[in-house]
Design brief:
Number of helices of chain B: 7
Oligomer: heterodimer
Strand content of chain B: 5-15%
Largest interface: A-B, 57 and 46 residues
Structural class of chain A: mainly alpha
Distance between the termini of chain A: 63 Å
Number of strands of chain A: 0
Strand order of the largest sheet of chain B: 1-4-3-2
Order of helices and strands of chain A: HHHHHHHH
Distance between the termini of chain B: 83 Å
Radius of gyration of chain B: 38 Å
Radius of gyration of chain A: 19 Å
Number of strands of chain B: 4
Order of helices and strands of chain B: HHHHHHEEEEH
Structural class of chain B: alpha+beta
Largest sheet of chain A: none
Shape of chain B: elongated
């Protein structure tokens, strides 16, 4: 089934469309959902809800974007709702401003530890910052695509990326060497 | 192109979404500026590292098989749709803005004309009135006296050297006769 056939099956209420959606986009959506919400069980539920909602509102898909982009838009919307519901939960672990401790055997080789620290740091970002980081570096979207996807201007996307990266720099221990020491642009005094 | 401008365009430069003219000027700047070149390399490295780490983190995740059955069941049974996040700020702000704009228009259409100053009778410029200037006439009043507590009158004058101009006279409205009587009574008592 190609994309047009899947959309037609979704519009017709054909449950075969669900199978195709799961086969083509299920895992990809799940991985993105996991990074957005930080919990695998909730990510599974979010993907399930996304696909149900997509089949029910297939008439709204106008074909202006790829089907995956449209599905991801629904997922983003559901994730925002999920975070709104969880806002009232107060975490009693370490304060969010504290830097995540580096692993004791912190070499660049320890990719697993590094990815765990990075995922933890992304989870501590604010919602809008987390979204742009995942869309940019995980989904590999261009700036203008992100802007269209989340409904903001390109300038806002770049600003959010800047502040999110700065926050990650604060949270991630320098031993991980994710941010190479460079000549950061410093405004010179006239 | 300076460093500040170049840094703003680095993301689009990496995306290859800049118009060719701007792209070539960014490339020219990058050739001669070490700091910007370093920033570009840093962004490229960071992007690659984050992408690899996140993929490594999530590659083992797969959708549970029973979810597909659940979805088919939910669609067939007509269970209620999951709730989505609605941007209430946008939803509420739009009618509020429309209401505000309507109120402004209504104010402009009904109330504002009463306080509107009519165009001057003659297109004269303000002048310094000196002795032996001639007062030509008292011009129209420039405010609706029934609505305001001040009166503005314009006095058209002609100076000795023949320049024509005006003087604005703004005065507080005299108090009403009843109020004046009351004031007198209060003074007497």
């Amino acid at each position: 089934m190609n994309e047009a056939e899947i959309v037609a099956a979704m519009r017709g209420g054909d449950t075969a469309a669900v199978e195709e959606l799961v086969r083509l986009y299920g895992n990809r959506l799940l991985r993105s959902a996991y990074l957005l919400c930080g919990n695998e069980t909730d990510a599974q539920d979010l993907v399930q809800d996304t696909l149900i909602l997509a089949v029910r509102s297939a008439r709204r898909f106008r074909g202006k974007s790829a089907l995956y982009t449209w599905l991801h838009g629904i997922l983003l919307s559901l994730t925002r709702h999920y975070h709104r519901k969880r806002k009232r939960i107060v975490y009693t672990d370490e304060p969010p401003t504290q830097r995540i401790p580096a692993p004791s055997h912190s070499d660049r080789a320890d990719v697993e530890a590094a990815s765990s620290i990075l995922a933890d740091a992304i989870r501590r970002l604010s919602g809008p910052h987390r979204e742009v980081i995942i869309l940019r570096y995980y989904e590999g979207m261009k700036i203008k695509e992100i802007a269209r996807h989340i409904g903001v201007t390109k300038g806002t996307v770049k600003s959010r990326l800047h502040y999110a990266t700065r926050r990650l720099r604060e949270l991630i221990p320098p031993e991980l060497n994710l941010f190479r020491p460079t000549g950061t642009y410093v405004r010179r005094k006239p | 192109m300076n460093c500040k401008h170049c840094r703003k365009l680095l993301h689009e430069y990496l995306d290859e979404s800049l118009p060719s003219r701007i792209r070539s000027s960014v490339a020219a700047h990058l050739q001669k500026c070490d700091e910007c070149r370093e920033a570009l390399a840093q962004e490229r490295d960071f992007s690659r590292s984050v992408s690899e780490l996140l993929r490594g983190r999530t590659d083992s995740l797969t959708l549970r098989p029973h979810l597909q059955r659940n979805m088919v069941k939910a669609l067939e049974s007509g269970a209620p749709s999951p709730k989505t996040h609605r941007n209430y700020r946008r939803v509420l702000l739009r009618p509020a803005l429309a209401l505000g704009a309507a109120a402004c228009l209504l104010f402009a259409a009904i109330i504002a004309p009463h306080n509107h100053k009519p165009a001057p009778v003659r297109t004269a410029q303000p002048v310094a009135v000196r002795p032996k200037s001639y007062i030509m006439c008292m011009a129209t009043t420039y405010a609706d006296e029934t609505k305001t507590d001040w009166i503005e009158r314009r006095m058209i004058v002609v100076t000795r050297n023949g320049r024509e101009g005006y003087l604005n006279i703004i005065a507080r409205k005299p108090s009403k006769p009843d109020e004046a009587k009351q004031n007198e009574k209060e003074e007497k008592s």
